[in-house]
Description:
It is a single chain. This protein is α/β, with parallel strands linked by helices. It has one domain (3-255): P-loop containing nucleotide triphosphate hydrolases (Rossmann fold, 3-Layer(aba) Sandwich). It is built from 9 helices and 11 strands. It has a 6-stranded mixed beta sheet, sandwiched between helices. It has a 3-stranded antiparallel beta sheet with strand order 2-1-4, with helices on one face. The protein has a two-stranded antiparallel sheet with strand order 10-11. Helix 6 links the parallel strand 6 (160-164) and strand 7. Helix 4 crosses helix 5 (142-155). The relative contact order is 0.17.
Amino acid sequence: MDELKVCNLNAGWNKNQILFNINISIKKGEFICLSGPNGSGKSTLLSIMAGVQTEPVFGNIKESVPISCLNIKQRAKTVSYMQQKEFPTWDYSVKDIVLTGRFPHTNFTGFYSKADFYAAEKAIEQLNVENLANKSILELSGGEFQKARIARAVAQETEFMLLDEPVAGLDFTYQEELLSLLKSIAKEKNTGILISIHDINTAARFAQKIALLPKFKPCLYGTPEQIMTKENLCAAYNANIEICTHPVYKTPLAVF
């Protein structure tokens, strides 16, 4: 499956439509950022793409077949999904919680193989949380728990990753490090990665494409240069915004 497509998607909650005629596609190897104002439906879109929210939805999420046609285990081998919020209740260690990302790859016994343990260890190393591996998730700070969750998604080794605000709660230095890591994972492992992020200027620096989701309007999808225009951003954020070029990174820069 080389592409994850959203085709003519409309969706909502409690009879209130949130998503309007969404059409985007994620190819394997691409790193894409989903941005937009609060309440525009970013989390809803990601949960639908992951197959978590199924109703009321009109349109299709497609790989080689609609994602709704895959069973839970098939879907979990294809798409890893990290929701925006998760509240730990069980006293697992970080290495145990990361290892749960390998469950879709287990056989009918549910036992983990050497390959599963290796994948979990590699993800812990990639996310630079070796010092937390034996620590209880109940003792972690918010930022540390976020890192453990991302490591779990990486360990899952899927064709596509959907991460809802993965850098929320992380300090600036680690945000930069994590976004660079995710972009390199997309390229090196040929994984299509879509993340939601509030800072559209950061999105422009790292993403190959941006999906800009205004409230109650179709999604705008293209390169940072195509999406970050004064007209697009003023309409999406209902604010007076100027666009210039970042003096260091030479990417579009929105000045609010």
